[in-house]
UniProtKB/TrEMBL annotation:
The protein's name: FAD-dependent urate hydroxylase HpyO/Asp monooxygenase CreE-like FAD/NAD(P)-binding domain-containing protein
Annotated source species: Shinella yambaruensis
Alphabetized SUPFAM superfamilies for the sequence: Nucleotide-binding domain
Domain (FAD-dependent urate hydroxylase HpyO/Asp monooxygenase CreE-like FAD/NAD(P)-binding): residue spans on this chain: 22-177
Signal sequence region: none
Length: 461
C-alpha cells in the first residue's frame, strides 16, 4: 500500500508544457480527487500530491487500522458514481474478502466492512486509473503545505513546509481533519483498568467496544460533549422514504416535519432511518435557504442530534453498546473537556468542573478544520477564500469551487469536510465521490476556457 514517490514519476514527459495541478492532502478525499482527475480531465497534466504522511492508503479515518469500523454499507461505497456496485464487484473478486465473507450473513450490498478493506479498494482503483494515463505525470511529495497565494506569473503559488515554492494552475485542498499524526497519542499502560474515550461518534463507540473485547480495559467512560451517541442502522439498507406533505423551508418547520414523519413511521412499524435518509437528500437545499441566525441555531442546538442520526452504528455494534451500558462496562458522561492530563481529564458539565481520573485516555474526537493554521491563514489573508459563517470551514459551491473575496474563481477547490459549513453531509464517502467527479469536470471546463481565452488574447496582440 505504500508507494515511494519515484515509482510514480515517469521521466518521459516535459513538465513545463503540462497544466499543473496540486492536491494538498492524501487522505480519502485527496485520493478520490486524484482518481476523478485521472478519469475526467482529458488533457495531459502534471499532478503533485502533497502530504507529510508517507503513505497513500485511502485515508486516516478509513485506512488506519485503529479506526476499525466503517459504518457505511458496501452498496454506498463505490468510488465510481456511474457504477454503484463497483465496490461489491471488487469484493466478490477479492480472495481475501471471499474468505472473510463466510462470516457475513445476507447480501453483500448490505454488509459493513473494515476500513482497511475499503482503503485497499480505493487504492487499487487509484493505481488502475493511473496506469490508464501515460500522458499524466504524478508526483508524490512527502511534505506539508505551509501557504498558498497568487503567483506573479498567474495561477497559484504553493509553499511547502520545506520552503519550496511552485506555481500551479489549480489547487485542490483536501486537508480534512488536519495533519495526520503517525503515533496515536497517549497509549498508556497495557491492561489499563479505567479507560476514558473522548468523543460521542461512531469511532469513539467502536474504540470503547474494542478496548473491552480485547481486555485492554475493565471499564470505559465514554465522554460525549452533547451526551448523544450514534443511533442504529436498520437491519438492512433502507432507501429514502418521503412524505406527501410539502417540505418546509425553515429550520423549525423542517424539524417539526421530521418529528411527525418519524412518529408516523413508528406507528406504522417502519423505521425512522428511511425518513432521515430522505431528509438528508433535502438537507443541502434547506441549508442554502436558512438565514445565518438559523444556521447558528442549527450548530448550537440541532447538529449533535442530526449527527447521531446520520452517522449510525451497524445494528450488532449498537446492541453491544446497549449491553455494555446496561452491564456497567461503559458509562456515558456528558461534558466539555477542559484539559487532558496523563492521569485523566478535567471535565466541565452540569455539576461544574470535575476531575475524572483514568489509567488511560484516548481522544477520538473528529478535529474540525483549523482555520487558524498557517495554510488557512495564508488563504484568508490573500482573500483567496472566505470562511463560512459557522467557522466549520471555507465557503464552497457544490463542485467544491472556492471563490475569492471579489467573487472570482481562481483555480482553487476545497474538497470534502472543508466545505461542511456550505454543504451538509459533505464529509461522507458517497458525497465526496460525487463532489470529486463534479470538481474534475469543472476543472476540465475551466482549463479549456482559460486556454481558449489565452489563445484569443495572443491572436489579437
Ligand atoms: C472513524 C471514522 C470512520 C468513518 N467512517 C465512514 C463511513 O463508514 N462512511 C463514510 O461515508 N464516511 C466515513 N467517515 C467519514 C469520511 O471517511 C471522512 O470524512 C473522509 O475520509 C475525510 O477524508 P479526508 O481525506 O478529507 O481527511 P483526512 O482523512 O483527515 O485526511 C487529510 C489528509 O491531509 C493531510 N494534511 C492536512 N494538512 C495538510 C497540509 N497543510 N499539507 C499537506 N497535507 C496536509 C493529512 O496529513 C491527511 O493525510 C469516517 C470518519 C471517521 C473519522
Amino acid at each position: 500500500m505504500t508507494l515511494a514517490p519515484a515509482q510514480l514519476l515517469p521521466q518521459s514527459q516535459d513538465a513545463d508544457t503540462l497544466a499543473r495541478i496540486a492536491i494538498i492532502g492524501r487522505g480519502f478525499t485527496g485520493l478520490m480527487t486524484a482518481i476523478a482527475l485521472l478519469k475526467a480531465v482529458h488533457r495531459p497534466f502534471h499532478l503533485v500530491m502533497f502530504d507529510p504522511y508517507p503513505k497513500i492508503d485511502g485515508g486516516e479515518s478509513i485506512g488506519r487500522p485503529a479506526s476499525g469500523l466503517l459504518n457505511s454499507r458496501v452498496r454506498d461505497l463505490s468510488v465510481d458514481p456511474a457504477a454503484r456496485d463497483d465496490f461489491r464487484h471488487w469484493l466478490e473478486a477479492n480472495d481475501g474478502w471471499r474468505d472473510r465473507d463466510q462470516a457475513v450473513p445476507g447480501n453483500v450490498d448490505h454488509a459493513f466492512v473494515p476500513g482497511e478493506v475499503f482503503s485497499a479498494y480505493a487504492y487499487q482503483r487509484f493505481s488502475e486509473a493511473l496506469r490508464e494515463r501515460a500522458d499524466v505525470m504524478v508526483q508524490v511529495r512527502a511534505e506539508s503545505v505551509a501557504a498558498i497565494g497568487r503567483h506573479s506569473r498567474g495561477g497559484l503559488s504553493v509553499l511547502s513546509g520545506e520552503g519550496d515554492q511552485a506555481r500551479f494552475d489549480a489547487v485542490f485542498l483536501a486537508t480534512g481533519y488536519g495533519l495526520r499524526e503517525i503515533a496515536e497519542g497517549n497509549a498508556g499502560p497495557t491492561g489499563a483498568r479505567e479507560v476514558q474515550v473522548i468523543g460521542g461518534g461512531v469511532h469513539a463507540v467502536d474504540r470503547a467496544l474494542r478496548l473491552l473485547a480485547a481486555g485492554e480495559a475493565s471499564h470505559v467512560t465514554l465522554i460525549s460533549a452533547s451526551g448523544f451517541l450514534p443511533q442504529p442502522h436498520a437491519p438492512s439498507a433502507v432507501g429514502a422514504v418521503s412524505s406527501d406533505r410539502p417540505f418546509p423551508n425553515t429550520l423549525r418547520g423542517a424539524f417539526r416535519h421530521l418529528r411527525e414523519a418519524a412518529n408516523r413511521a413508528a406507528l406504522e412499524g417502519t423505521g425512522w432511518q428511511g425518513i432521515m435518509n430522505d431528509f438528508r437528500l433535502r438537507a443541502r437545499e434547506l441549508w442554502q435557504g436558512l438565514t445565518p441566525e438559523e444556521r447558528r441555531r442549527f450548530k448550537r442546538h440541532v447538529k449533535p442530534i442530526y449527527d447521531s442520526h446520520r452517522n449510525r452504528l451497524p445494528l450488532g455494534h449498537y446492541e453491544r453498546l446497549r449491553r455494555a451500558i446496561d452491564s456497567g462496562a461503559i458509562t456515558v458522561r456528558k461534558g466539555k473537556i477542559e484539559r487532558i492530563a496523563t492521569n485523566g481529564v478535567l471535565l466541565s458539565g452540569a455539576g461544574g468542573l470535575q476531575v475524572l481520573p483514568a489509567d488511560r485516555t484516548i481522544d477520538c474526537r473528529v478535529r474540525p478544520t483549523d482555520l487558524d493554521s498557517p495554510l488557512f491563514r495564508s488563504l484568508l489573508s490573500a482573500q483567496l477564500a472566505r470562511r463560512d459563517e459557522l467557522d466549520l470551514g471555507i465557503l464552497v459551491d457544490g463542485d467544491g469551487r472556492v471563490f475569492s473575496q471579489t467573487g472570482a474563481f481562481e483555480g482553487l477547490f476545497a474538497m470534502g469536510p472543508l466545505g461542511l459549513g456550505s454543504l451538509p453531509d459533505i464529509d461522507l464517502v458517497p458525497q465526496i465521490v460525487v463532489q470529486a467527479h463534479a470538481a474534475a469536470d469543472a476543472l476540465g471546463a475551466w482549463l479549456a476556457e482559460t486556454a481558449s481565452s489565452k489563445a484569443a488574447e495572443s491572436r489579437t496582440r
